[in-house]
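User: I'm putting together a teaching handout on how sequence relates to shape, and I'd like one worked example. Could you take histidine kinase from Parablautia muri, show the sequence you're using, and then write out its predicted structure as C-alpha cells right after it?

Assistant: Happy to. First the sequence, then the C-alpha cells directly below it.
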Amino acid sequence: MKLFHKIFLCFVVVFSIAFQAAGYLLISFSYENAVEQEKEFAFQGFQYNKYILQSIMYSEPQFFSEKKAGNVAFADNFTVPVAIYGIDGECLFSNMAVLPEKLFFEEGADDRISYQIYEKDGESYIFVCDYVSQGNIETYLITQTDISSAINNQKSMITYFQKIYLMLLCISFPVIFLLTKAITASIKEVGKVAKRIAGGEYSGRIHTKGKDEIGELASNFNQMAEQVEEKIAKLSDMARQKEDFAANFAHELKTPLTSVIGYADMLYQRDLLREEVKSAAGYILNEGMRLESLSLKLMDLFVLDKQQFVLEKMSVKEMFQNLEQGMELVCRKSEGVLHMDIEDGCIKVDYDLFKTIILNLTDNAMKADSKNLWMSGKQESNQYRIVMKDDGKGIPLEELGKITEAFYMVDKSRSRKQHGAGLGMALVSKIVEIHNAKMKIESDGKMGTEVSISFPLQEEIVYE
C-alpha cells in the first residue's frame, strides 16, 4: 500500500472514530441529564402522591380496612397513575395501564425509595416504589411517570447525529484527499528525483519551500544529491584521466620503441656506412634516453602514491643555497640566467621532494626557451610563498587547467626532442599536495609563466 493511501485511510479512520466517540459522549451526556431530570421529577411526583395517600389513610382508613380502595373515584385523588399494594402483596388499587413484569417491594421503612425504568411497546416509564404507613395501615405505593419523550429525544438525536456524520464524512473526504496529496507531494517529488538520479541524471534537485520535517528531508536530499554529483564527477574525471594516462602511456612508449626497433633492425639487416651507423645509433640513444626519463618519472609517481613521507622543519634560505648550483647548471645548458631573492623562513618539507619541485620547474622554464628565471621567496601572513617567473613562450590560457595532468605537453614536438614525457608537472602537483601546500600557475599565453607555491609557515628553528 502506498504512503498516500495509508495517510488517507488513517485520516478517515481517526476522523470517524473521533467524531463517533464525541457524538456518543455528547448524546450519552444529554440522555443521562434528561433521565436524571425525569427521575427527579418522578421522585417529586412520588413524594407528592405519597402525602396524598397518607392523608387518605389518615382521614378514611376504612377504605383500606374494608378493601374498598378499588373504587374508581379513589383515582381522582392522585396526579399520576399509581398502584397501591398491601403488605401481603395484594393489589388494593391500580389505575396503571402498564405494570412492570416483576414488582420490587422493599421490606421495612428505611427511607430508601426504589425505582425501575421499564419499556414496553415503544413506551418508556419510571416506576417509583416505597413503603408507606399511617397508623396501623401499611402499604406499598408505586407511581408511574412516562419518560418516552426523553427516550425518543435520544433516538432522534442519534438519527440526527448519524445524518450529520454522513454529511460531514462526504465533505471531509475531498478535504482529506487534498490534505494528504499536499503532505505527500514533497515525498513524491523526492521519489521522482531519486529515480532520475538512479537513472544517471545527477543534476536533479527537489524544489520545496516548506520548513517542516519534509522540507528538511528535501534539503538534506539535495545536499546528498550535490555530494553524489560531485563524487560522480570526480570518479568520471579520474576514470577519464586513467584512460588518458593509459592511452598516452601507450603512445609515449610506441613512438620511441618503433624508432629503436626500426633502427636496430636496419643495423642488423644491412651493411651501413660508419656515418649511417652512427646516425642510427644516435636515434636509438635518443629514444632510449626518452624511455629512461619516462620510466623514472613514472616510478616517482607510483612511489609518491604509496609512500608515507616524514616532513621536517627546514630553513628555506639554506635549502636554496644548496639548490642554487643545480639550478644554475640547468639554466646554463639553455643559456639562461638565474636571479634569486630568497627571504629566510621555516617550512615543513621532505628535502628530496622539495628539490624535485624546484628542479622540475627550472627545467620546464628552460624548455620554454626562457632567457631569465626569477626565483623569489617571502613570508606572507601565516604562509611562505615561493614564486618562479620566466620570460619564455608562456602557456595558452585554455591549457592552464590541464598542465598538471600526466603526459600533458603544451608543445609535444619540442618536449619529445628534449626527452620530455609530460610527467614533470604531474609530479610537482603530487609533491605539492603531500606538503599541504597550494600551487598557482599564471600565464597570458604570449610571454612568460609564473608559478607560485604557498607552504604553511612554521616557527623558526632555534639552534642551541
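A couple of points you could highlight for students: The first helix runs from residue 3 to 59. Confidence is low (pLDDT under 50) at residues 411-421.
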